[in-house]
Amino acid sequence: MIAQLIVRNLFHRKLRTLISVLAVGVEVALVVVMVGLTTGMLQETAKRIEGIGADIMLQPPSSSVFLAFSSAPMPVRIRDRLMTIEGVRAVAPVLLQSSTSGGLDVVYGIEPESFRAVSGGFVLHEGRELREGYEVLVDDWYAAARKLRAGDTLRLFDHDFTVVGVVEHGKGARLFVPIRTLQQMFGAADKASLFFIKCARAEQTPRVIEQLRALFPRYEIRPLKDLLSMMTTSSLPGLDAFHRSMIALAIVIGFLVILLSMYTTTLERTREIGVLKSLGASKAYIARIFLAESALLCAAGILVGVGFSYLARAVLTGLFPTLSVQITHEWLLRAAAIALGAGLAGAAYPTWLASRRDPIRALAYE
Amino acid sequence: MEPILKTENLWKVYRSSKVEVPALRGVNFEVYPGEFVTVMGPSGCGKSTLLYVMGGLTQPTRGRVLVDGNDLATLSDAERTRLRRHKIGFVFQRFNLLPTLTARGNIAIAQHIHGNGFDPHRFATITRMLGLTERLHHRPAELSGGEQQRVALARAVIHEPKLLLADEPTGNLDTRNSEIVLGMLRQLNRELGQTIVMITHNPEAAAYASRVVHMRDGVMVDGIPAD
Ligand SMILES: Nc1ncnc2c1ncn2[C@@H]1O[C@H](COP(=O)(O)OP(=O)(O)OP(=O)(O)O)[C@@H](O)[C@H]1O
Ligand SMILES: [Mg+2]
Q: B23 CA to middle of ligand 1, Å?
């Protein structure tokens, strides 16, 4: 019976209901998409690094796995010491740069030979491998997104590069240039941001890591085999804080929207409250009506929010095909819980007001 | 016979900010089971206030109100609510139907609040007696004033209250609809033994009752039953 009253009331004020539902939907989508975007980028990066085929990654102290923000490089000649470790078969230095021309892309500066030795080489879709100078290899996704073919020109770091080939995706980055070119452009002669290490046999990886730890105590040394499973939001400092602020923002939106909506509702339905009280409705009965109505608004908003999230992902990945938005059930549930919690908190005050309204004054209310 | 309702030196003083308005100043009033009593009196003499206090919608300032043996003055807010739920039915001048629900919904929500479940027999008896059978699926906006007040009447008596309290139930109705509603009140009183206290300004309406009492300036000026 209450259900009928609530649904009728929500339909009675279609515009307000619609706006509240949309706002809760935006709230939910905000959390889901923002978290999905960051974890998606993180996972994507991890997957690509894993896909290189190296066994170990060595980075300078306090570097992040999230390669777009990499720290100061180290000398390439560290390689000589790495090669002396028993079980190491190949070492590839990589210099990283982030290109901001049309999205945030990581560019790998590589030595074609050592990178091939570590990764087993690129699968070329067209064109040829890198040699030297202002040449760039792009992966097939990037090529598709930017409509690039071998022989085209791509502008990176304010310089024209020739696309010499298109390669299969999944080898660390989407863009590869000769390491020397990148070193020259950024005044980082003989520097590398990280080393990929290939062991002679995969089983030797733990032993090699042990020795690396002894040699480079403060360096970040990661086995790449389970990089993906190890990848959590806490692997990037700041990401958790970012997520927390998104959640805080969502809570504020949800709280205010339901507060305002339910406050106007209780004002508008003052007489109704008086009538229900005259019929013998208790405070709890009145409170139940308004809380249930708020919960229903939130529930509808959550459904809309789930829809918005998938829609936003479709739009985002449509516009930026290299983007990955990871929508997980876990975060959908969390966003739903946030929306419901914030909504009910927002409904608390109007509900309290409604339940303790003096019936005589309520009945006299115009 | 014990009165179903009895007030003893009943006072109600409204306190709004700094002014004190004594709306009831020592009302002594009794209603016996099966009576149909009308209360008449000039505007502002405290008739509605008396009805609200008797129905437990507000606490008296002083004195006693006994409803079916319970002294409302000593009850907590929650206890008064419970008493109102089970023993009182209200009808107002403004019909006060819930606008989003149909006639049936308005009656059903009253039953839901009373918590006795849906009693189809009672529902059928009441809606038939009030001539609502054909109008049950209409919303208040689609009903005439007379029909709305009959729905309000059905809602007020669906749970067999000990006492039906009506505050100028025909105040918003034309003569014809007034007569219909008053006739139904009398029918409820005669056929189902419903005890009724009705406020009215209209002497013709008062004629439907079994007894008329008069109020002035917050007190009864006559009407103590002459038994
Ligand atoms: N909520 C309130 N706060 C303060 N004063 C009130 C309140 N309700 C009623 N009064 C005052 O109490 C007195 C009695 O009011 P009440 O409504 O009981 O009169 P009434 O006999 O029903 O009048 P009417 O015939 O016009 O309906 C009036 O002077 C009124 O102004
Ligand atoms: Mg009145």
A: 6
